Amino acid sequence: MKTDVFIGGGGIGGLTLALKLAQRGTQVILAERMAVKAPTYKGELLQPKSMQIFDELGIYEQICDRSNEIKVLDMLELSSSLQVKDQSFMDYNVLPGKYNAAYMMHHEELKAVILNAACKYNNFHYLKGTACKGYGDKTAILQKGTEKFEVEAKFFFGAEGRSSVTRKAMEVEVKQTTYNHHFLTVTFPRAKDFTDGKIISTYNRFLGLFPLPDDQVRSVYLIPPGDYKQLKEKPISHFHKLYTDLAPVVDGYVQQLSDWKKIQLMIPVMYHANSYVKGNKAIIGDACHAVHPMAGEGMNMAIQDADILGELTADMFEQKKIHPSNLKWYEHVRYKRADHVIQLSHLAALAYSFPFKPVSYIRQRTFERMEEDPILHFKQMLNVSGLGMWKENVRDRFIQGGIMPVRMKDLPKDRKELKYYTPEDDYPWKTEGLI
Ligand SMILES: Cc1cc2nc3c(=O)[nH]c(=O)nc-3n(C[C@H](O)[C@H](O)[C@H](O)COP(=O)(O)OP(=O)(O)OC[C@H]3O[C@@H](n4cnc5c(N)ncnc54)[C@H](O)[C@@H]3O)c2cc1C
Description:
The protein is an alpha+beta fold. It folds into 3 domains: about 220 residues, 3-Layer(bba) Sandwich (FAD/NAD(P)-binding domain), CATH 3.50.50.60; about 100 residues, no CATH class; about 80 residues, D-Amino Acid Oxidase, Chain A, domain 2. Helices cover about 35% and strands about 25% of the residues. It contains 15 helices and 21 strands. The strands form 4 sheets. Strands 1, 2, 8, 9, 10, 11, 19 and 20 form an 8-stranded mixed sheet that branches. The chain has a 7-stranded mixed sheet with strand order 6-5-14-15-16-13-17. A 3-stranded antiparallel sheet has the order 3-7-4. A hairpin with a 2-residue loop joins strand 10 and strand 11. The chain is globular. The chain starts with a strand and ends with a helix. The site of flavin-adenine dinucleotide has 34 residues, from helix 1, strand 2, strand 9 and helix 8. This is FAD-dependent oxidoreductase.
């Protein structure tokens, strides 16, 4: 088989890349090793930048229809006696424009929407149940059942997630950082009117609740590493109580989980490959970076990688400038953005990692100040949204630390919009030229 672009891995990243290329007329073959839906939980929170990308790909409405819109994340800090000590909000409404909300959607359903959109194009070929085993000189070596075959392509893009064969073929190393905690994660029914996200913490406990459509809610509960096995030996009512203690809103709903089997262990890791591109190969998504799940960014980073690499590759074919050195534009745009998100997610993780009262106090003060200071609030939401990047400076840190007073005046809409990435920021080769 022969094609312009071969993609290994049909997760959210690989599928978004395939759709983008297919829409622009590039010949694409995508190989996905799984023949059935993945049984494990994965990312479900879509940030505003991902929604903007899906809008450009023509699937925004379908995604809105099948997801739960989240405008506000309610951050509750509880006392040792589980009374609300402090409440602050992360409010997507501070972002001007159309993309001012996050969306929760079932991961496999999102994959199906993207795949169905890509399958409308004759230049897209999806090889289900087909694993990429490695690379030959100019080919990807594939295996379906016992049958082995090769695909010849001009470019090979690895979107195979954490254990990427393309990354290995590129000889790109990743050094993994682990954390001093794990998570339990599970989805269960919720009340109809519980539609905004909630993050509930005490000095030594953490529960995240993210409402999905169909009156369901996805939850993550922090546990010390190694506790999962012991917890599973307890009656399921112990798990229910962990949740209802912190979140009365789930009482009567979490009890519908009758078996530990549905509750998965999630082990957070962080890494960032030192390079995304080598010759005519490139990696996207979890193949090149993993972020702590606290900030709900991993899937969004894969979508944003796919957008930039897809636009670039399609332009290269359209302009008949297919020299592999052009792929460096992808790394140029994405690397520093991804690095910033990784650092933010890492900081957010650290804020909940240490079970000490002074840490919880500092966290509570920081969130309070962030909400009181409209510029800090906007910066936080902008960075989380992916729509732009505005790093915090010394003054911001002093305000957060209570050393300087909060600013009372908000920025006007047009000043905020100046902080959004422009098409020139996203696709700089369009003005600077390909070789
Ligand atoms: C429990 C959990 C919760 C998460 N929550 C969030 C969240 O709320 N928000 C968020 O943004 N992110 C979240 N993430 C992270 C997010 O799921 C990942 O960052 C995202 O799925 C990465 O997408 P990807 O396409 O790069 O890789 P993957 O989703 O890992 O997809 C890789 C695909 O490649 C296939 N594959 C692997 N090897 C081969 C091969 N050799 N040949 C062919 N196919 C292959 C796999 O079967 C898979 O389908 C979470 C992750 C986990 C585990």
